[in-house]
Amino acid sequence: MNQYHLQELLICRNLLEDSALQALLQAVNTPEPSTGAKAVSMLIEQAEQLGLAGDIIRAYTLHLLTHTGNLASRTSEKCHGKLGSSLKKAFVHDMELLSPLLSTQGTLSAFPLLADYHPTKALRTEAWEKLQELMGSADTAESMADALLTYYRRYGYGDIASYRAFQWDNGKLAGIRHFETIRMNDLIGYAHQKEQLIDNTEAFVAGRPANHVLLVGARGTGKSSGVKALANEYYSEGLRLLQLTKPQLRALPEIMETLRQFSSKRFIIFMDDLSFEESDAEYKYLKSAIEGGVSSRPENVLIYATSNRRHLIRESWRDRIDGQDELYRDDSIQETISLSDRFGLIIHYYAPDQSEYLAIIRHMLKKQGIEMTDEQLRVEGLRWEMSHSGRSGRTAQQFVAHYLGHKSNS
User: Fold this and answer.
1) Do 214 and 272 belong to one domain?
2) Which residue of 70, 267, 284, 304 has the lowest C-beta tally within 10 Å?
3) Can you give the pLDDT at residue 320?
4) What CA–CA distance (Å, rounded) separates 45 from 359?
C-alpha cells in the first residue's frame, strides 16, 4: 500500500479532520484486517449517502475538496476566482501530497471493493459531472490544482456549488434539496415578459448594470415559475436563488453581508406573492436594501419579487379622504406607492386568452406523451376552466393533473 504524508498538508489540512479519511490513513499505516475493514466500511457508507461511484477513495477525496472549504476555495470565492502566486504554489504542494488519492489508476489495491463501486443511487449533478471532466485530464499536481480552481471559479464550494436555490435558516444559507427543475421552455406564452426577464438576468450574470424586478399580474400566470426557471438556466454561470419570506426582510442587512462574501456568484433574492399592509414595518427594510442604506448594496445581489397588485403596500379609500388625521395626506399616499417604484423593471402578466390557455395544456400533455385532438382539447379544457377559477397556467396544470389521474384509472 502507498504511504501517505498528509500531515504535511498546508492549505487543505481540514481534510485531516474527516473521520473516514482518518480511518483510511490508519489502515494504510497500520495494515491490520480490523483497521482495513473499518476504513472500507466507513467509505462504503459515505459512497451510499453521497452517491459516489467508481474509485471511492478518489471520489470521496474530491468530495471533501469541493464541499469542505479550504483557504484556496474561500479565497477564490472572495476574490472573483483569483489566487495569489504564493497561495497557488502552496495549493499545488497539497495536490502533490493528495495525488495518490486522486489518481485515476485506482488506489489501495488491497481493498478491491473500493476500486469500482456501484452505489444504489449514483450522484448525477451538473457540477459533479463537470468536476469529473476537469479532473479526468489532470495528471500532474499543477494540472489537478488548475482543475479544482476552475471548478471553484465556476461553481464555488460546499452548498453554493451543490444547490441552485437556498432559504435563510437561523442566520445561514440552507440549500433547497428538491428544487423545481422547471426551465424557460416549459413556460408557454408570455414571450415579451420572458424576454424582459431573461435580458435583465443575463446582464446581471455578465456583470453589466441590471435592475431589481417586480413581476405583477393575475394569479397563476407563471410569474414565480419564471423566476425559478432562471436559477436552472443560469446555474452554471454562477446564478443562485435565495427565497425569503416577508418576516425575514428584517434580516436583510445580515443576508446582504453574507452574500457579499460570495463575490464570484450572483444572487437573486426572491420574494413570492409580496404585499404589505400599511401597518407592516418590513417594507422599510426592503426599501433600504434596494437603495443600499448606509452600506452599499452588494453588486452581486438583485431583488426579484412577484405580486398580484402593482402597489405593494395596500392603499385604502380612507387614505384618499380629505381631512384625515395626517397633516400631509399626499405624502402618506406617496409613501404607499414609492416601494414599487424602487424596482427598475416592472413586468406585467395578464391572464392568458383562450388559445394561450389551450396551448399550455397541449404542451403539458405532450410532455407526458399524450396528444389530444383540437376538438377534444377545446371541449375538455374549457369545461375545466368554467368550473374553476378562470384561465391561467395554474388552472391548466390542475386540468392536466386531473386528466392524467383519471386516464390512469380508466
Assistant:
1) yes
2) 284
3) 47
4) 48
Question: Of the candidates 164, 192, 169, 199, which has an alpha carbon nearest to the alpha carbon of residue 180?
Answer: 164
Calculate mean pLDDT across residues 74-103: 92
Q: What integer pLDDT is reported at residue 37 of this predicted model?
A: 87
> Which amino acid belongs to residue 238?
G
Contact predicate 225/272, CB 8 Å: no
- Range with lowest mean pLDDT among 98-107, 144-153, 229-238, 249-258: 98-107
How far the first Cα of the chain sits from its last, in Å, is: 62
In a domain, 150, yes or no: yes
Q: Are 238 and 161 in contact (CB under 8 A)?
A: no
Do 105 and 124 sit in the same domain of this protein? yes
The string of pLDDT tens digits covering residues 143-175 is 999 999 999 999 999 999 989 999 999 889 999
In a domain, 35, yes or no: yes
Dist CA 191 CA 181 (whole Å)? 20
**Do 162 and 153 contact (CB within 8 A), yes or no?**
no
pLDDT digits (tens, 9 = 90+) for 118-138: 999 998 888 999 999 999 889
Residue 239's nearest CA partner among 129, 174, 176, 163 is 163
> Are residue 41 and residue 105 in the same domain, yes or no?
yes
Burial class (CB in 10 A: 0-12, 13-18, 19+), 345: middle
Q: Tell me the residue range of the domain where 87 lies.
A: 6-162
Residue 15 in domain? yes
Rounded to the nearest 10 degrees, the angle between the axes of helix 374-386 and helix 354-367 is 110
pLDDT at 106: 45
Q: Are 326 and 194 in contact (CB under 8 A)?
A: no
CA angle 197, 346, 266 (to 5 degrees): 45
Taking 50 as the threshold, does the pLDDT of residue 1 lie above it?
no
